[in-house]
Amino acid sequence: MTTALANKRKSADSLNGPVPSKLAHVVLRSPRFKEMVDWYKFVLAASASYENDGLAFLTYDEEHHRIAVMNMPHLAGRTTGTAGMDHMAFSYDSLADLVAHYRRLKAAGIMPFWAINHGPTTSLYYRDPDENQLEFQVENFETLAESNAFFSSAEFAQNPIGTEYDIEDIGRRLAAGESEADLKRRPSIGPRGLEGIPLR
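RE: above sequence
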């Protein structure tokens, strides 16, 4: 960090300035435009608020677009081991919704590459046709205070990554009547570091 930036961060104006009201959208450049647009429409149950041969604005809620895809056929594909955004994340209201989403995608041949209970969330990770990573998650705690307390716990300090789980087993146990709170409780596996994260 430069000295000028460090000094700016120390100023009252920068510390107390306005903050964004929300994260509005993500824009993706793609050489596989149609495949990407079709994939995001299906995976997010999204519709196009605007679409032509070069640009698509996709939404699944009240926002005019959450994902935009730009048609750039000249671009090279992603390479392994490069810097950049790791993933984008989308939340569901319940574990039942997460399981239903998983089953819908599975029926279309779209499978997660990682199922992990981070502690604050129970999550499934996918890759889109351009190898961008997406996380679909459900919050494990009822309140923000509980989530923040977990972040501050010795358990999280020991394992900030999480514990893998079997989404099929979770679905069966949920259908058998086990509570979401019990199923979302992260099992303790001891110390774990960043080396456990699947990279692409």
